[in-house]
Amino acid sequence: VSELQEWRPVIYRKCTDTIWLLLFCLFWAGLMFISGYAVLAGAAERLVLGYDSFGNICGRKNTPVEGAHLSGLDMTNKKYVFFLNSCSLEIQRLKISSLSLCVSSCPQEQLNSLEDLQSFARNNGSFLCVYNLNISSYTLNPKAAQLCPTLPVPPSKSFPLFNRCVPQDPECYSKYASVLISIVNEMDVFHRILSGILAGKDTVIGLSVLALAFSLVLVLAFRFIQTLLVHTLIALVVFGLLFVSGVLWWLYYDYRNDPSTELETEKENVKFLLGYAIFSTIVTVVLLSLIFVLRKRLQFTVQLFRIVGKIIGRIPFLLFQPLWTFLILIVFWVFWVAVLLSLGTAGTAQSTSGGQVEYRALSGICYMAWYHFVGLIWTSEFILACQQMVIAGAVVTCYFNRNENSPPPHPVLSSISVLFCYHLGTAVKGSFLITILRIPRIVLLYLYNTLNQKKNAKCPFKCCFCWFCCQESCLRYFNQHAYTTTAINGTNFCTSAKDAVCILARNSAKLASISCFGDFLLFLGKVFVVCFTVFGGLMAFNYHRELQAWVVPLLLVGFFAYLMSHSFLSVFEVTAEAMFLCFAIDMETNDGTAEKPYFVDQELLTFVSQSNKLTEGQKHRSTRSFQDNEDGTELQPMV
User: Fold this and answer.
1) Spatial distance between the Cα atoms of 362 and 99, rounded to a whole number of angstroms
2) Which residues pair with 611 in a beta bridge?
3) CB neighbours of 551 closer than 8 A, spacing ≥ 6?
4) Please, are residues 371 and 410 in contact by the beta-carbon 8 Å criterion?
5) Quick check: 296 pLDDT over 60?
6) Beta strands in 182-249 (DSSP E)
7) Is the dihedral of CA 40, 25, 378, 321 positive or negative?
8) Alpha carbon of 78 to those of 51, 276, 451, 469, 619: distances in Å?
9) What's the chain's average pLDDT?
């Protein structure tokens, strides 16, 4: 029971939620089995290196397939995939109808005749016709038109990652990219995202690095925050919101009135720009209104971040936690994608009547893919939960330390050791609850896109999606406080969550307004990173209009910028939440006497007292105003 809880950081702990840790280990044993099966049965190199229509993987020696006489060729010097009809690719049962060959080099100039193909083969040693057609027969064989590429052959360039000859003509490239991506996924949005990324991958990478730099600068700024810096941040956010909204509206009118807008992807750019402009304008109005309403609490926010910065100053390694977490997540995501590629290419080669080769997927792959997908969500959430527990444990160690002149040595390392020795099961259980709410959201999103044509189906899906989003946000909030309680008392997840809820319920009036405005300023910091990253993207993509579909990748860049800023600024958020929970516990279990002195720092105690006085004063003025208005009514009693 919460009232009987000692509320002291325990030294001698015991393992919590051990059963959940064992379940997680068993789950990962299943993931390892799927990974091993994918490596043995799959052929990720077939997807990465590319293969021709006869089952030969480009860039390596091949084994023959029974019934396909052109299989089993040595393609060591032929590293690029070339489609004979690259400008008119079609999909039939998720297969490209055009023949594909392995070639040693892609044509850099347009080839208009069979003589040009013959000359290109002799000069470059790259044969663009079917393997069994001799170079001298290019202009003599009556079937050369069916065995050689469709004329004219557009100039193409090899894509460095997937070794495909990509046509450089804008319209041809647009069709080529969308068809290739259609094989990966049938969702139209997915097509356009990947096609835009393929077209502007250098710009996307550059903008992602810019978002990372903005996030690091903002973290350092919040660490050494001063009053002028808060005003500067708010001014930059206001300027960024107004400027980005104005640029979006200007680009929308510029694109809409451009007579050269003919391609379907360009017309979709105009629609996306209109949606972005409307959304940006609404966000600008809402945030500017909130900034105006909350302007009087600006000085208290400065004090709040000064106190949080003081705690982080005692534990400077907390600032590196997001970087370590991000690197671990990147390694895991790379591993997950590699296994997914191998799993997606697990199949047996079978020859068709025309001598070509098709790969048939093995049974049970779909169920393995879903299991693998759940592993992505659960493991990612587990890694983030570990970060939260490490930060909370370090803050708890420093808060409940009476001797300020002798701070605890290595609080971050101590928190990590406590987590790995005792409380991994608690992190597993908390992350599993998030996963349970995440999976229905993703399933609903998939069904919503599948039933997008049916208007009657939209409203229920949107309502359910919003409900799950709200549930997940609330659960994340309580999970964080449960982790902090576990770091203090060493109790399991359910007991910690119950104790944390009881404490928060009794102290919500004292801490809610302080915590909310601190979170709001951190949110403004995230908006600052997103605004200026998106502005850089608008300028970069607008000067490369030949990339066609660039508006959707811009949205992806904005999402990545928000994710990066959230990862780094979450240090301040988790530190503040843990500090306020420790403060509430301190106020309930101690009375400031010699027998039960407070652990709280005097600056934090003064800050909370002043903030509560301001809140009570505003409530009192509101009540007085209401009573004055009551005095003027005709229901006032006669004296």
Assistant:
1) 24
2) none
3) 196, 268, 269, 272, 273, 276, 541
4) no
5) yes
6) none
7) negative
8) 10, 44, 43, 50, 77
9) 76
Do the Cβ atoms of 211 and 506 come closer than 8 Å? Answer: no
Bond from prior residue into 152 cis (ω within 30 degrees of 0): yes
Q: Whole-angstrom Cα distance, residue 183 to residue 177?
A: 10
Long-range contacts of 583-586 (CB under 8 A, 24+ apart): 583/511, 583/608, 584/503, 584/504, 584/506, 584/507, 584/510, 584/511, 585/7, 585/488, 585/503, 586/399
- Give φ, ψ of 359 to 5 degrees: -105, 120
Tell me the C-alpha to C-alpha distance, in Å, between residue 218 and each of 31, 112, 167, 543, 565. 38, 56, 42, 28, 8
For the stretch 40-62, pLDDT in tens is: 877 767 767 788 988 888 988 88
**Residue 600 amino acid letter:** V
Q: Fill in the amino acid letter for 324.
A: W
Grade residue 591 by pLDDT with cuts at 50, 70 and 90. Answer: confident
Domain definitions of the chain by residue range:
18-35+198-346+368-614, 52-170
Does the pLDDT at position 37 exceed 60?
yes
Q: CB neighbours (10 Å) of residue 597? A: 12
- Does pLDDT of 503 surpass 70? yes
Distances (CA, A) of 617 to 330, 485, 512, 614, 623: 49, 32, 16, 5, 10
* Eight-class DSSP state of 154: P
3-class state of residue 72 by DSSP: coil
Alpha helices in 42-113, H assignment, sequence order: 44-49
Residue appearing with tokens 């105003």: 625
Are the C-beta atoms of residues 412 and 311 closer than 8 Å to each other? no
Confidence grade of residue 451 (pLDDT, cut at 50, 70, 90): low
Q: What is the distance, to the nearest Å, from the Cα of residue 237 to the centroid of all Cα atoms in its chain?
A: 23
CA-nearest of 388, 605, 512, 491 to 2 is 491
Kindly state the percentage of the chain with pLDDT values over 70. 74
Task: Identify residue 349 by its one-letter amino acid code.
Answer: A
d(CA 62, CA 270): 47
Tokens of 633: 């009514």
What's the confidence (pLDDT) of residue 597? 78
Question: CA 153 to CA 397: how far, in whole Å?
Answer: 69
